[in-house]
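Design request, tokens follow.
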């Protein structure tokens, strides 16, 4: 199943401005992770931002997360993008792309 990277470009002083919305955001993150849609998520620094890795049949899973995310809804995310992401190391060996040996 394909992976998708969701990247957030956030407003200045995001770290402080996010605090009122953080519990709702974390709830959404944990629920998506619990459903197996969100593989990992974390904050970027210098400059601040976020990167979330999804796994699903299409990019729609990441797009739907972004549009419902309190950080996006409250205007803390200036721009978000979803890009297909190819895992080269660390993926399930049964899903090795054709032509590459399975990872040990």
């Amino acid at each position: 199943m394909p992976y998708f990277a969701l990247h957030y470009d956030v407003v200045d002083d995001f770290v402080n401005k996010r605090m009122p919305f953080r519990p709702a955001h974390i709830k959404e993150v944990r629920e998506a992770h619990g459903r197996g849609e969100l593989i990992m998520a974390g904050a970027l620094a210098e400059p601040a931002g976020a990167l979330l890795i999804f796994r699903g049949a299409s990019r729609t899973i990441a797009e739907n997360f972004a549009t419902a995310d309190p950080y996006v809804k409250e205007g803390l995310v200036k721009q978000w993008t979803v890009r297909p992401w190819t895992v080269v190391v660390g993926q399930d060996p049964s899903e090795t792309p054709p032509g590459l040996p399975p990872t040990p």
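Comment from the thread starter after seeing the answer: thanks! The chain has a mean pLDDT of 91.
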